[in-house]
Amino acid sequence: MEQITKSTNILVIDDDLGVRESLKIILRDKYCVSTTSNIDEAIVSMDTVKPEMIFLDIKMPKANGLDFLKQMRSANTTIPIIMITAHPSIENTITSLRNGAFDFIVKPFQPTEILNVAEKALHHSNELWEKDMLVNNLRKAAQQNFFSTTEALLHAIDAKDSYTAGHSKRVSELSAFVAKELGKNEPEIEVLRYSAYLHDIGKIGVGDLVLTKPSYLTPEEFHLMKRHAEIGYKILTPIKFLEKCLPIVRHHHEWYNGKGYPDGLEGSDIPFEASILSIIDAYDALTTDRHYHKKYSHQKACEIITQGIHTQFTPTVTEKVLAIINRHHEAYLQQGRAEESLIL
C-alpha cells in the first residue's frame, strides 16, 4: 500500500495560494502533489500530470469549480474529486454530490481530515479499478468463448463446402488491413475485423444442397442463399458487444444501384463499412476456386470489380480499397520471392 500511495498524483485547484500550500504540505509525505490557481491551468497541466485525485475549490475568479466537476464527469472520468469551499451551503453540497464529487470539505480544515478523505478516495479508486479489471476480464473471456464457438460454426460451414474453406478468415484479415490503411482507429478496425469474420455466419441456416451445388443456382435457390445475410444478422443481434457489427453483416450484399439484398439499399444509404466488406468479399471469392468458376488472377479480379463500380460497388471507396489490395498483393509477392530466395 505504501508503494501505491507514494506514486499517486494529486492535483490541487484553488485560487488561494495559502490553501494550495497548506494542502501540499499536508499531503506531500504520502502523495505526489501539484497545484494550479485556476481551471485553465489545471486543464493544461492534466496532460502531463495525469492526476488520480483532485482537490477542487468551488468558487474561483475565472471559473466555477462546479462547472469543471460537471465537465469531468461528462467525460466519464472516474478520478475522485473532493470539493473544497469556505462558504458551505446545503445547495452546493447537494449539487456537488449529485454531479459526482467524491466528498466535500470546508475551509479551514484539519490535516487529519485531509489525510482521511485522501485515503478514502484512493481506496475507493482502487476498488473501482479492481472492479473494472474484473469486468474487463470477464468480458474478454465471454468474447473469447463466443469466438471459439463461432469458429466451430464457421468450420462446420467450411466442411460442407471445401471451396469456401478459410474464406471468412481471409476476408477478416484483409478487411483489418484495409481499415488500417484507410486511417481507421483501433476500435473501428476491430469492428470491421469482427464483421468480416462473421459475415457468412448466416449460411449455417442455408440448406446443404444450396451451399454445395456444383453449378449456378436457380432463382429459387438463390433466393434461399440470399437469406444468409438476414439470418446472420438475427444470430448476432442478441450479442451486445457486436452491436456495431450488425449493419455491416446485414448489408454486405447491398448494391450501389439498389439491386442488392436484403433491403435494397442504394448509394449513401449503404453503411460505409459494409461497402468496404462487399469489395473484399468479392475479391476473395474471385481469387479462389468456386463451384461455378476457377479462380481469377489478382489483376483480373480487380478488373471485374472495377467494372462493377456504379452498379454493384460504391465509387471512390472501391478505388481506394482496390489500391490498398494491390499494395497488399505486391507485398505478398515480394515476401514470397524473398522466401523462395532463402530456400534456393
TrEMBL record:
PANTHER family recorded: CYCLIC DI-GMP PHOSPHODIESTERASE TM_0186-RELATED, LIPOPROTEIN
Domain of life: Bacteria
Descriptive protein name: Two-component system response regulator
Record-annotated Response regulatory domain positions: 9-122
InterPro entries: CheY-like_superfamily, Cyclic_di-GMP/3'3'-cGAMP_PDE, HD/PDEase_dom, HD_domain, HD_GYP_dom, HDIG_dom, Sig_transdc_resp-reg_receiver
SMART domains found in the cross-reference section: HDc, REC
Domain HD: 164-286
GO biological process: phosphorelay signal transduction system
HD-GYP domain sequence ranges: 142-337
Native species: Candidatus Brocadia sapporoensis
